[in-house]
Amino acid sequence: MIRPVLLLLALTVSAWAADFRAADYGAKGDAATVNTTAIQKAIDVAAKAGGTVVFQPGVYLTGALFLKSGTRLQIDEGVELRGVQDLAAYPFMPTRVAGIEMDWPSALINVYQQQNVRISGKGTIDGDGKAWWDKYWKMRREEYEPKGLRWAVDYDCRRPRLIQIYKSSNVRLEGVTLKRPGFWTVHICYSQQVTVDGAIIRNNTEARGPSTDGIDIDSSSGVTVERCDIECNDDAICLKAGRDADGLRVNRPSEKITIRDNTVRAGAAGVTFGSETSGGIRDVEVSGLHVLAGVPAGILFKSASTRGGTIENINIHDVVMEGVNSAISVTFNWNPSYSYAKMPEDVKNPPAYWRVLTEPVSPEKGLPHLRNVRITNLKATGVRQAFTVASYKDSPLQDFQFKDVTIEARSGGSIQNAQNWTFTNCHITPSIPEIR
Q: For position 1, what pLDDT does the model report?
């Protein structure tokens, strides 16, 4: 009686471990053939058996791919999935982007309302994003900024993200090199129990791609980001929770987040909280962070007077910064030309999302709050300003604890509208600028 049971178990395990070769479904890694249909067929067949999609070495052009529950996408060394530069290859789908819910092009790799999915390997996923970046800059500089519509261009210029994890759970992204997304690199939205481990993000290899965030955690819980190496042209690791009236309507926090042992080589900050804070950000631990020279801020909190929401219970420890402009930065009037949307009087039939973006938020709901922050064992050298911190009088920054902090800086900077800040064994020492 035991042997048949063991045989059945062995067959079951074998079926779940099966590899499905994309080449068997017509995929060609010749950097010329568009393989969207072939790779998706391999994914769909693998999903029925809980299998793994694998590739022979090569460059595989593709549009949007949709992973299914129970499957694994294995991108081994020598394999590259490269996004095609055709918006029609990325079907529009309901999602949230830059803080509001709207239809948006699907990402190159999508985990959309799925469970138990793994993306792994030492290969590369490349968005080939420069065409999207050029389109954005042309629209912004030639059309939108002259009309005072800086706030609208990010939404009107539809650019595919590289990886979207949306309304999904138990997802792992491991080891893969990610580069040149049209928009954000990894967007984790409305999801639970997601791990990003050992990803290498390189978005500045040929040009500085606008809004090429590294990893965005958006109204999600139980997320871990660890051992990643990030070089991007906007927020490197960013926590978000919705924007303005739409974010307040959704009212869903980012919470129970662990960020550890990551290196940030380029980006807006080592770790960013905001500016989309409407649903709240809480219960976050950041440790083992290494922020290298040229990054503007080590730790950045940002929001605006229409965002609302509360950032609280933040534990940051064992951080090393080298040559950042500001070690600790808080700005709650961030980027006004982008943050405060106003409908032009001469616009008669605006897109629906313009109406959402310009919906008024009362001062009572719009003020963001930041409290209960602990920063310990932080060492920063070659810093321009130790603190660049400001909030509103009606929303002071409350209950910050600094312990065992050493910052070598040209100036101490400033702290405005703060309450109950304590410093234990903290040293801010002057540095002398290098003379050339």
A: 42
SS3 state of residue 143: helix
Q: Give the 3-state secondary structure of residue 128.
A: coil
CA–CA separation, 142 vs 135, rounded Å?
A: 11
Q: State CA 399 to chain mean position distance.
A: 27
Measured at the alpha carbon of residue 144, what is the angle toward residues 138 and 146, in degrees to the nearest 5?
105
**CA-closest candidate to residue 159, choices 212, 200, 112:** 212
pLDDT tens for residues 233-265?
999 999 999 999 999 999 999 999 999 999 999
Confidence of residue 204 (pLDDT cuts 50, 70, 90): confident
Cα distance between residue 121 and residue 118, in whole Å:
10
346 class by beta-carbon count within 10 Å (0-12 exposed, 13-18 middle, 19+ buried) = exposed
pLDDT at 434: 55
Name all domains of the chain by residue range, CATH numbers in brackets.
59-430 (2.160.20.10)
Q: What is the model's pTM? A: 0.94
Q: What is the DSSP letter of 129?
A: T
**Distance separating alpha carbons of residues 39 and 279, to the nearest angstrom:** 37
